[in-house]
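Thread amino acids onto this structure.
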C-alpha cells in the first residue's frame, strides 16, 4: 500500500546526514489553533491506519488489535464518517482502498482464487465492477467525486491500467500501459488524470491516455508523485538530496521546495500543500503556500493521509491511532 511505501521513504530520509530544518520564522505565518480528535475504533481494535480520504467526511483504512510487539494485526477494512465507524468488514476481504464524497467505497475481493474489483456498500456487501473475460484478475484503487474508478487488471501476463467511467455505467476502458518494475496508483483527479508510482522511485501522470514521466530535476534523480488535484501533481524528488516537488499535467517540474522539505502528500481545495519536512531534527507535517511554509500544525509524529478540501482538517494517524487535527 501507499502508506507502507511512504513509511519506507520517511525512514530512508531520516538516515540522511545533510538535513536542513524548516525556517521557524515562516512557520508562524498562519494563525490557527489545531486541535486533535482521535477517531472511534471498532470493538476489539486498538490500532488503525487511514489509506483513503474524500477530502471532507469519509475515510477508509484498516483496524485491528495490538500485538505484543505493538504492531497492528488481524487487519480488517474499516470505513469512517467524520471519525465515526460506519463499517468494519468481518474477514480479511474485501480490501477497502478509497472512498469519495458520496461515500462510494472501492477496492477488491477474492473470487475463485482471483482478485475482483468491487464497490463496497456501507453494509459490507460487494458489487463486482465490469470486466474483460480475458483478465486473470483486477482491482480498483482510486475513485474521484465524479464516480470515476481506476485500477489495475492482469491480461496476458501484463498489468494494464483500467478506467470505469462514471458517465458510462457498466463499461470499462483499458489504457495502453508501459511495462514497469512495479506500480502503484496513488491518486485520481476530478478530470480523470491518474498518477502512478513506479519501481523504487519515479512516477507518471496519465492524461487522456498518454503517459508522461515526471521530471526529476537531474539525470540521476527520480520524481515520485503522491497526489493530484486539477492537473497539479505533487510529491517529492530525489537527486543529490530530497525535496518536495510540484509538476504539471505533462510531467514537467514546476517547483521544488528545499529547506528540509521531504515530500508533499496532499493538495487542499485552495492550493495549500500538506506534506513532510524536518523541523529541527525531527520530521513533522507542514503546510506550504507558494512554496513557503505557513504552518506546522501537528507537534507529534503523524502519518498524513490528506488535507481537507476546505484546508481546515488534516487526516491520518498518530501513534497508530486514526485521528484528525482541525483548525479552530
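Threaded sequence (328 positions):
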Amino acid at each position: 500500500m501507499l502508506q507502507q511505501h511512504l513509511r519506507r521513504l520517511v525512514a530512508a530520509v531520516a538516515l540522511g546526514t545533510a538535513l536542513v530544518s524548516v525556517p521557524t520564522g515562516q512557520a508562524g505565518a498562519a494563525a490557527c489553533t489545531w486541535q486533535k480528535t482521535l477517531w472511534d475504533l471498532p470493538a476489539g481494535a486498538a490500532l488503525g491506519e487511514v489509506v483513503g480520504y474524500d477530502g471532507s467526511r469519509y475515510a477508509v483504512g484498516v483496524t485491528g488489535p495490538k500485538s505484543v510487539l505493538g504492531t497492528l494485526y488481524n487487519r480488517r477494512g474499516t470505513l469512517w464518517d467524520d471519525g465515526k465507524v460506519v463499517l468494519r468488514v468481518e474477514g480479511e476481504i474485501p480490501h477497502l482502498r478509497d472512498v469519495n464524497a458520496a461515500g462510494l467505497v472501492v477496492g477488491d475481493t477474492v473470487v475463485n482464487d482471483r482478485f475482483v474489483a468491487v464497490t463496497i456498500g456501507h453494509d459490507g456487501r460487494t458489487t463486482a465492477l465490469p470486466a474483460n473475460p480475458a483478465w486473470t484478475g483486477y482491482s480498483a484503487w482510486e475513485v474521484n467525486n465524479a464516480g470515476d474508478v481506476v485500477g489495475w487488471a492482469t491480461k496476458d501476463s501484463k498489468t494494464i491500467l483500467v478506467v470505469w467511467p462514471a458517465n458510462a455505467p457498466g463499461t470499462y476502458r483499458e489504457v495502453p500501459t508501459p511495462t514497469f518494475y512495479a506500480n502503484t496508483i496513488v491518486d485520481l483527479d476530478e478530470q480523470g488524470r491518474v498518477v502512478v508510482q513506479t519501481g523504487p522511485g519515479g512516477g507518471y501522470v496519465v492524461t487522456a491516455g498518454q503517459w508522461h514521466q515526471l521530471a526529476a530535476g537531474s539525470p540521476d534523480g527520480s520524481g515520485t508523485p503522491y497526489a493530484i488535484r486539477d492537473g497539479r501533481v505533487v510529491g517529492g524528488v530525489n537527486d543529490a538530496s530530497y525535496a518536495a516537488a510540484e509538476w504539471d499535467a505533462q510531467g514537467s517540474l514546476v517547483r521544488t521546495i528545499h529547506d528540509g522539505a521531504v515530500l508533499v502528500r496532499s493538495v487542499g481545495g485552495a492550493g495549500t500543500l500538506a506534506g513532510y519536512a524536518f523541523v529541527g531534527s525531527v520530521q513533522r507535517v507542514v503546510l506550504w503556500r507558494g512554496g513557503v511554509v505557513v504552518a506546522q500544525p501537528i507537534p507529534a509524529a503523524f502519518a498524513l493521509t490528506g488535507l481537507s478540501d476546505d484546508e481546515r482538517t488534516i487526516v491520518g494517524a498518530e501513534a497508530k491511532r486514526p485521528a484528525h487535527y482541525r483548525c479552530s
